[in-house]
Amino acid sequence: MPHVRRAEYPKVNSSFVLEYVEVIHRHHKRTPYAANTFPVETYPWYCDNEALFYYGAPLPTHGAHHSANTYWSVYTSSSNPLAPRGFNGTCQFPQITGGGLDDSWQHGNDLYGVYHDLLGFLPEKYDPNLVSFRVTNNVITSQVASMVTSGMFGGEAQQNLPLLIQPASIDSLEPAYTCLAAKNNFSAYGVGSSDSGWTSHLKAASDLYATLDTISGIPPTDSGFHMSFDHYFDNLSARLCHAKPLPCDASNSSLCVTQAMADEVFRLGQYEYSYLYRDAGARTLEYSAGSYGIWVAELAQNLRHAMHASDSASTGNRTSSGIRYRHNIAHDGSVSRILSILQIEKMVWPGMGSEVVFELYRRKVDQQYYIRVLWGGQVLKSSNPTLGSLDMLQVEILVAYFDGLVGQGAKKIPSLCSL
Length: 419
What we know:
Elements: E1 16-26, E2 52-53, E3 71-72, H1 98-118, E4 131-134, H2 139-153, H3 180-189, H4 196-204, H5 206-216, H6 223-226, H7 230-241, E5 248-249, E6 252-256, H8 259-279, H9 282-314, E7 325-330, H10 332-341, E8 355-363, E9 369-375, E10 378-379, E11 391-394, H11 395-406, H12 413-416
């Protein structure tokens, strides 16, 4: 997906100084989730060109022994009569694929090309006092982070590099914290609901569903595949992203999913995300603010801290530079909620690597702060009249908007979520 790159980057004029950057993006391309595969897949999927390393090691200051670099190697046993659901082969479902790892490296390298090479904002070498990376409790985000950091800082990233992660039960980035009110709101209009705005497209696509079910072997009673097009979308898009053929009936190789069928699934998936996060009206903002409000509050506080650190430096009082660049690796649901909260003009299903960037600038002439938000590498346009084109907007306006939704320090979230 398009992201910040030097060739297309809209550079701000020299009357402004970049003070802080926060990036959030979806992980890069992967194998489908196991739940989204078909009961019998007609070809295997191999991941022999990469290794997923899982090990613990004492930090250099806390132990004299070194760990081996151990990784998982998927295999099946001839003594095990059970077949795995979906694809045979050597992959995890999901895992970031070799192509996804390459895309992750390139993403990091492109960001470095702008924020270091073009703007001189990032340090040449990784500095934990200036730069931080954060992931969710889903391991695929850590797989991406290992390559993004290498793409940004090269050999320097080979050192021990911390990835910030919150406890699984309260993780705001994924998000994983409980928000009953948001869940109930979503259940009233979204996936699994009887709301006519939601069910109308599913009914209209009944013929497509019947054909896909026949080819895939998915029972029409499988709610996971039939409450939305999410599962079919993931299954088919993962194949095409990796230049694999569209699936055929396991018992009739002449009966296959066509490109036209896949395109219809993708079109319906785009409709679903637009409806869930924008087109269903005020309910979408209420849902997103409740379920993603903590991360938004964290972002607002990061902006406050960055302004305070810059002001302190200008008066000579700052003793530490503070974090200038935060990088969050998340999921489609994470990015969708951010776009919903910002009330983006045209909502889409965020593809692999989709990116939102918040840039905080200080104007030299009057020391006032302004925010620019980039989506896909270009200025994000909001349908909210207070926000409009998020291009050098006074930062107080955006922070006040966030505070109005979720409260400073997310203090409104307990009541919004009925906690």
